[in-house]
């Protein structure tokens, strides 16, 4: 069985922890593990390999985190933009043998009852071997209005239902045969594609063309225009709600999609006052609060039932129970800043950079390059740069020259000059970069050569 892991989505309801370039599935929220890593660990016990379907910008995050887990035998399909789950799953299945059984899972779900999970996935595999499209229905623990529901009779699906109002969700909870739609599936790749071709032929044909035109080396990279040409739709609308081959496995697996701060609060360890445990947190007479922040001391006095999230460049304060509105805050932030998109520390294929100071005329960064990593050969039209090596060994390309630099040595990069930074040593390279210019945006980069195929 092959685990297709869907890594799309920006997790905007967990902003400012989750951002476009570091979405919630890759943030290490649980015992220094990300939800993505927990997904891989859980499913690698029952699957032979991983097939990662990811946004092209997030590929290196998945690759690095798999490396941390020492997981090999990984396959990747990179999407230049998201077109929802039906095209993502179709492209992955088209790259496999039609008889391959796949377990399709999101990368950002938490499942704590792994022994029960092992049982239900085995049951799903047996149903899939018989030519069924299997979905997992989560036994509801409360009247949830944020999920779609599956009405079932044993393994038979009677109907799919849209997200209900509270009254309807309460009736579903009491009925006993309604389940939350988990977004997890199991089937033969060929059976899914046959049903997709039958019920959503436009998605099938456009996906087939996109894969035929894809650049395939050690990974599959879909062309932007081909991806854009695929109709956008979910697997539920495109196939599952139309097919006669659908089965459901009722699952009581202690599941959460960690889709809001209220959901995250329920999953994090807490102290005797019901506050989430945080080494930077001190309080007086404060109870039942979610406190998240790793950079500054957070102190509270006489507060209860709040969500406080501090990421250095953004502070969120919300009442518990209202955290679904965070998505609306992101829309307000999006208009006048990059706070929805990137953290102060940004992850790149070659390492990380952290913004230490940002002013209209200058910006200071701490740049860390992994051993063997190097930035693109690039130039800037609106800024000059000054690099000072803090630790490690650097090789700087400046025009036609290659210049070695060691700790406490520096170099000036004139505006418009081709340059590149490379870590030629066996230890991380750390430099301080000072940018000076009239425009210091991250889009003032012209890449001439790039090891990571970025434009």
UniProtKB/TrEMBL annotation:
CDD domains: cupin_PMI_typeII_C, GDP-M1P_Guanylyltransferase. It is an enzyme of class 2 (transferase). Residues 280-332 form the MannoseP isomerase/GMP-like beta-helix domain. Keywords: GTP-binding, Nucleotide-binding, Nucleotidyltransferase, Transferase. Its EC number is 2.7.7.13. One of its GO terms (biological process) is polysaccharide biosynthetic process. Residues 337-450 form the Mannose-6-phosphate isomerase type II C-terminal domain. It comes from the Bacteria. It catalyses: alpha-D-mannose 1-phosphate + GTP + H(+) = GDP-alpha-D-mannose + diphosphate. Residues 3-272 form the Nucleotidyl transferase domain. One of its GO terms (molecular function) is GTP binding. Belongs to the mannose-6-phosphate isomerase type 2 family. This is mannose-1-phosphate guanylyltransferase. It comes from Sulfurimonas denitrificans (strain ATCC 33889 / DSM 1251) (Thiomicrospira denitrificans (strain ATCC 33889 / DSM 1251)).
């Amino acid at each position: 069985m092959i685990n297709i892991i869907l890594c799309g989505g920006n997790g905007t309801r967990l902003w400012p922890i989750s951002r476009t370039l570091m979405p919630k599935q890759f943030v290490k929220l649980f015992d220094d593990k990300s939800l993505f890593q927990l997904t891989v660990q859980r499913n690698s016990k029952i699957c032979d390999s991983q097939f990662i379907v990811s946004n092209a910008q997030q590929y290196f995050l998945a690759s690095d985190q798999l490396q941390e887990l020492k997981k090999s035998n990984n396959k990747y399909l990179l999407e230049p933009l998201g077109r929802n789950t039906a095209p993502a799953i179709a492209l992955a299945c088209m790259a496999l043998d039609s008889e391959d059984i796949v377990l399709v899972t999101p990368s950002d779900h938490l499942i704590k009852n792994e022994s029960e999970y092992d049982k239900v996935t085995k049951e799903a595999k047996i149903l899939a071997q018989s030519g069924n499209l299997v979905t997992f229905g989560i036994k509801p623990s409360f009247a949830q209005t944020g999920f779609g529901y599956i009405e079932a009779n044993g393994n038979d699906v009677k109907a799919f239902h849209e997200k209900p109002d509270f009254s309807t969700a309460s009736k579903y909870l009491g009925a006993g045969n309604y389940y939350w739609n988990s977004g997890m599936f199991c089937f033969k790749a060929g059976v899914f594609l046959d049903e997709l071709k039958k019920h959503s032929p436009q998605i099938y044909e456009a996906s087939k063309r996109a894969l035929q035109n894809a650049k395939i080396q050690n990974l599959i990279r879909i062309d932007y225009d081909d991806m854009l040409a695929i109709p956008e739709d979910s697997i539920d609308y495109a196939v599952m709600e139309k097919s006669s081959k659908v089965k459901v496995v009722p699952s009581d697996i202690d599941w959460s999609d960690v889709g809001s701060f209220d959901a995250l609060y329920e999953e994090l360890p807490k102290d005797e006052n019901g506050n989430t445990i945080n080494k930077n947190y001190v309080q007086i007479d404060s109870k039942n609060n979610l406190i998240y922040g790793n950079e500054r001391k957070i102190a509270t006095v006489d507060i209860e039932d709040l969500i406080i999230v501090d990421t250095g460049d953004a502070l969120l304060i919300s009442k518990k129970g209202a955290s679904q509105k965070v998505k609306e805050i992101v829309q307000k932030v999006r208009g006048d800043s990059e706070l929805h998109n990137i953290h102060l520390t940004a992850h790149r294929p070659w390492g990380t950079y952290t913004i230490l100071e940002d002013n209209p005329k200058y910006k200071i960064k701490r740049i860390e390059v992994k051993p063997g990593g190097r930035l693109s050969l690039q130039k800037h039209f609106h800024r000059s740069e000054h690099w000072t090596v803090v630790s490690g060994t650097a090789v700087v390309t400046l025009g036609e020259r290659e210049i070695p630099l060691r700790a406490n040595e520096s170099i000036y990069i004139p505006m418009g000059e081709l340059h590149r930074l490379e870590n030629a040593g066996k230890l991380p390279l750390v430099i301080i970069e000072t940018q000076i210019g009239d425009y210091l945006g991250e889009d003032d980069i012209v890449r001439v050569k790039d090891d990571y195929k970025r434009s």
